[in-house]
Design brief:
The protein folds into two domains: 32 residues; 52 residues, Alpha-Beta Complex (Molybdopterin biosynthesis moea protein, domain 2). Helices cover 66% and strands 8% of the residues. It contains six helices and three strands; from the N terminus they run ααβααββαα.
Length: 108
């Protein structure tokens, strides 16, 4: 006997609904955790890792007030959204290097 023909369509629907509910729960948990991580300030060490720069470089940027940061007592903190925006504001557009080379080499 073919078991596919003997399946109750309501049982199949119920199995799929349970599967969908589990997937929604998993996504909800993931998004909740991600939102908490986005809002949480990064420490100096976390920010150096995120930006792939040395602590000395990050200290220099903060002392010159060239990078957004928070300071509480002697500790520095950074918001990931601020760091992302700072990175994008220092983006070199495609073709910009070519224009600089032509200018420095006396090109038109």
């Amino acid at each position: 006997m073919n078991t596919a023909k003997n399946l109750n369509p309501f049982d199949v629907i119920e199995e799929r609904l349970v599967s969908l509910a589990q997937a929604i729960d998993t996504l909800t948990d993931y998004l909740t955790n991600e939102r908490q991580n986005v809002d949480k300030p990064l420490s100096l060490s976390e920010a150096t890792h995120y930006l792939d720069v040395s602590k000395a470089t990050l200290y220099l940027l903060t002392s010159k007030r060239e990078i957004p940061h928070l300071k509480r007592g002697q500790k520095l903190y950074f918001l990931k959204a601020d760091l992302d925006q700072w990175l994008l504001s220092h983006r070199i557009e495609k073709g910009a290097a070519k224009e600089v080379n032509q200018t420095t080499e006396g090109g038109n």
